[in-house]
Amino acid sequence: MVTGLAWDANHQTVVGIHCGDGSQLGADLVVEASGRRSSLPEWLAEKGWAPPPERRVLAKVVAASLTVSWPEDWDCHKAFSLYICKTQPHGKRGGVLLPIEGRAWQLTLAELGGTRAPCTWEGVLEAAKQLPDPTMHSVLQRCKPLTPVNNYGGWPNIRRCYDLCPLPRGLLVVGDAVQGLNPVYGQGMTVAAQTALLLRRQLTEALAGARDLPARRHRLAGLSGQAFQRALATDVLEPAWALAAGTDLRYPMTTVSGPGARRLPASLTATLDCLARVAQRDARIYGLVLAVAHLAAPSRVLLVPRVLFNLAWQLLKEALARASRRLLGTGAGGRGGEEQEGLVTVAAT
């Protein structure tokens, strides 16, 4: 276990780590990747370095996840994925059923603003019954649980902005130690992989032409930790934060704190909601939205004529429908209920 950083005499360079058994390991470069509970801010403060400012966005999501068997009579050639949710930000419940090896599914049920996720199979079935579509509940009634129910209690999106504060030489910060996201969006592993690629690229550039160990150590000593953290923030962390924290910021029960943690403007939220409704009716646009959501494509892929035209047309139709209802005095009934309650998405593959 790592208990602290080893420093040079002036506390300007990290030269290794202290271990729980009292020993010290020397290093030319220390990469902190100990996760959300990282003690690095305290270790820096002990030596006079300012801790990083923090952003926190908490959507108060509770979730339950487990592995379930396929029904005994299920066609083995049907992988079958199932997604059930309601259009954000009005819907509060959702479920995902994903095929894995061994004729099994990985099941996750989530609720926004919930107090406690189910912890038993009977509780899972009851929660599935509360979904806005009965398909998943009817399938699960024919399944058997293969693992215990694992609960998630609503950790916040947290960003420690090491790119905004000075860092000692010989130190880099990656993983959840610098940014942890709401896991319901499934972006953590992608961010980790992108971070590894960035680190490899920067180390390759820094060590280019250094043919022996002394030369490499000299190059590493000149590597700027803050430059790496800035590149990491711009190229990797910010896009993922915008998707995960940005989505959570749309819910009224979400709490925010720290620099830059602001709620989205109502106009932008309304446009994103409209894009979700467009995607539910167009498979190609739906694929683009999923690619962006899973960090497989940059958000600029949505700025294509097909998406923009359909989005503009949908916004115009909804604006005309609202104007018509106001003129006729029909309130928010009929088609307008979609905006109040949200559309149910049921996607089976």
TrEMBL record:
Sequence ranges assigned to domain FAD-binding in this UniProt record: 20-211
This protein's name: FAD-binding domain-containing protein
Alphabetized GO MF terms: FAD binding
Pfam families, per database record: FAD_binding_3
Provenance organism: Auxenochlorella protothecoides
Superkingdom of the organism of origin: Eukaryota
